[in-house]
Amino acid sequence: MFDAIENWMQGFGWLPDGLITFSVIMLKIVLLLAPLMTAVAYLTYAERKVIGMMQVRLGPNRVGLFGYRIWGLGQPLADAVKLMFKEIIVPSGANKGLFLFAPVLAMAPALAAWAVVPFGSEMVIADVNASLLYVLALTSIGVYGIIIAGWASNSKYPFISAMRAAAQIVSYEIAMGFALVGVILAAGSLNLGQIVAGQEGGILSWYWLPLLPLFVIYFISGVAETNRAPFDVAEGESEIVAGFHVEYSGMPFAVFFLAEYANMILISLLAALMFLGGWLSPFQGVPVLGDTFLGQDSILWLFAKTSIFLFLYLWFRATFPRYRYDQIMRLGWKVFIPITIVWLLVVALMVLAGWL
Amino acid sequence: MSFEQIVFYFFSAILLLSALAVITVRNPVHAALFLVLAFFTTAALWLLLEAEFLAITLVLVYVGAVMVLFLFVVMMLDINTSTLKERLGSYLPVGGLVAVLAIAVMAAAVGRDHFGLEQYAAPERLAADASNTRMIGEQLYTVYLYPFELAAVILLVAIIAAIALTLRTRPGSRYQNIDKQVKVKRDERLRVVKMDSEERK
Question: Which residue in B76, B70, B78 sits closest to B32, CA to CA?
Fold first, then answer.
């Protein structure tokens, strides 16, 4: 499709090559970001609906579209409009420049990481060699938004929140990094597309089975990295009101919100790519089903697998009470990191034995 | 100027300006953030050299971890710049000497005689499928195996030493033993008493 557009633009004759490449890339970015932002908006709706049902409530069901109520599906749009028209208040004691820059710092890495995420064997904006490393590096930068927001607000609760977030994210990044090293060892590549290709051949050859402890640790660390319940001590509304975004209102607050949900979707998608075979069909090689359309690799499988993890995020939030801060640290340093190191040795032995 | 040169000078300018800002801005948090920017633009320059593994690792390690901890400490400082300025006079001679020495050493090491296109030819373009990560790995684990292992051992010793130096359990302090808390069984805490209901008196 993109080749056709490129050919069509070259057909004009007077457009410079650089401009053609640039506009095709921009088109790809728009085609990725527009659905992503819609998914983020409706993830907030799904969250309220799912948690509502788990608590035997209805969840949002009033705001509809064009006079039809349709289960409250208009709620995210109404929320977006409300946030856009709210006044942006900058506290008088705040460091104004950094206060307004912090949401940008939270959002930019959350979106930039998507550049290397593949949605199919050919569907990727930038097919980088070290794409997994790139994603890890960019997700680790996201914490600056929180830290700077906490500091620039010049207020006590945001500051405590910034301290908590900094310590927590640096700790869990190590466990997460080690879990990813296991995947890299098993796949023999840093490229996300090749990692998926290495899992070819039915549900039992996906990496969730040989890397089960790393899989669990990766996802739990991912929950901690995105500051979601039960690891949301950086927000902790019962202790420090709302943490780093106490002082934010309107669009800057909304940007923090969007970044958090974009990161959730990213972590879920990466978990699906690295441990559940990405776009590969679970029925590959199964006698009857494997020959039907269910046996085909498709982007729908990727989305279905991603949804599992997104649902887990919401389920965790409805189920678990918030961790105490020292217990979060203990879990990260004394439980997860030793387990990942031991399992790395096991994975290395499995690779040597030729099982992977 | 080719596109590559424009990119190079763009990032170099940002790098130099932010490096200058690190030592000139008053606010230590701003200084730390400028250092982050300096690391980031350095990573961009390394990407120009097709060293993508090093560039991403620089962002991952220095920006993502080291500078976060730096900020963690710097944010808690309460620095009064006026008291710092009072003692500037006594520090100036020593500081100046150190600066001059550092510049001299750097000029000797990376001056015109040692760097430049005459000494080093421009690196050749790598093939599109060349993996920078694999190339570094092959060098590290074959040619430079012993220096690499030595560095690893030294780092390990440093980690253990840092923990040993800061780990101290004061005898009088009360703290929670989480392992003990987790291992607790229901029977140790809870006693279910079965009794018949009693008549109200």
Answer: B70
Cα A231 from chain centroid?
15
Q: Do B75 and A173 touch (CB under 8 A)?
A: no
Q: Name, in order, each residue with C-beta under 8 angstroms of B141's C-beta and a sequence gap of 6 or more.
A: B148
Please state the pTM of the whole predicted model: 0.85
- Asked if A326's CB is within 8 angstroms of B176's CB, the reply is yes
CB atoms within 10 A of CB B71: 23
Phi, psi of A283 (to 5 degrees): -95, 15
- Cα–Cα distance for residue pair A116/A110, rounded to 1 Å: 12
Is some CB atom of chain A closer than 8 A to the CB atom of B74? no
Type of residue numbered B70: F
Residues of A with Cβ-Cβ distance to B68 under 8 angstroms:
143-144, 147, 166, 169-170
- Say if residues B6 and B29 touch (Cβ distance below 8 Å): no
CB contact under 8 A, B64 and A140: yes
For residues A312 and A304, give the distance between their C-alpha atoms in angstroms, rounded to a whole number. Answer: 13
Give, rounded to a whole angstrom, the gap between the first and last alpha carbons of chain A. Answer: 36
Per the listing, tokens 């490096």 go with B19
Please tell me the predicted confidence (pLDDT) of residue B80.
62
Reduced to 3 states (helix: H, G, I; strand: E, B; else coil), residue A65 is strand
Integer angstrom CA distances of residue B88 from A37, A322, B85, B92: 53, 49, 5, 6
- Residue type present at position A288: V
Query: Do A140 and B60 lie within an 8 Å CB cutoff?
Result: yes
Buried b (16+ CB within 10 A) or exposed e, B91-111: eeeeeeeeeeeeeeeeeeeee
Closest Cα to residue B33, out of A153, A147, A244?
A147
**Contact assessment for residue A153 and residue A97, using Cβ atoms and an 8 Å cutoff:** no
Q: Which candidate from B3, B68, B132 shows the least CB-CB separation from A143?
A: B68
The reply to whether A184 touches chain B by the CB within 8 Å rule is no
> Block means of pLDDT (10 residues each) for chain A, length 356 residues?
75 76 87 90 90 88 80 85 87 84 90 89 81 88 87 86 85 89 88 86 82 91 87 78 82 89 92 87 73 75 90 91 84 90 91 82
